[in-house]
């Protein structure tokens, strides 16, 4: 697969994801809530998680309707988490995806409700009356719920908030980010894979792939927070250092953090080779994009 072929695929899938989000995130909830929801999730972001869902579904020759619903659902969970993370009671940030954060534009109460509504909508999207078999609905809901809840993203955020000003070793830092960032990225891969038939060995390999890129994403995020400007990132640069938060750069050092990101990329590629699946080229490219990105 050439870079142009990958870019053409990604562009087409991103348009499809954007169209699905536009149709599934309503504009008519009362008292302006729909406006806040749509502001939070439409027209912004890398959409890495939906692309992972769709690439994993392709790798297992899965059901495209279910995969697109899963792609929308995982992006709704990601977007809701950003809305809540940016609020003054958490990270207190004013910039996200190059525009004012939801609580800055709509107020804290509306931002909280928008996040709540998007979280609920994610599970509604996964449970349509037709088009996805009940057993697959249940499996997708379970994967997403575990990744978003106390075992995953919410638990990781709790550790993150409790770690401000404290020294963490690499083991503790990895556990925090495995939950906070990695769990939802790994779940994206597994939700796509669940849309098709997967042998246990291939499922385990995709789990390892998802774990590797999930951690790599956070390592690179920590590097970019130090090396890139806010205009490039689309969010406030240097916040972790300013807030005295432990990161891979502060724990390992810059050179070791970069080396670790490359190691994780290699682990991701090795897992794909071990999977025995024939159509993993897009997943391999996405692993490269995670490590090589500049924002």
From TrEMBL:
Keywords: Isoprene biosynthesis, Magnesium, Metal-binding, Transferase. Its cofactor is Mg(2+). This is Polyprenyl synthetase family protein. SUPFAM superfamilies: Terpenoid synthases. Belongs to the FPP/GGPP synthase family. CDD domains: Trans_IPPS_HT (cd00685). It comes from Ideonella lacteola. Coiled coil: none annotated. Gene3D superfamilies: Farnesyl Diphosphate Synthase (1.10.600.10).
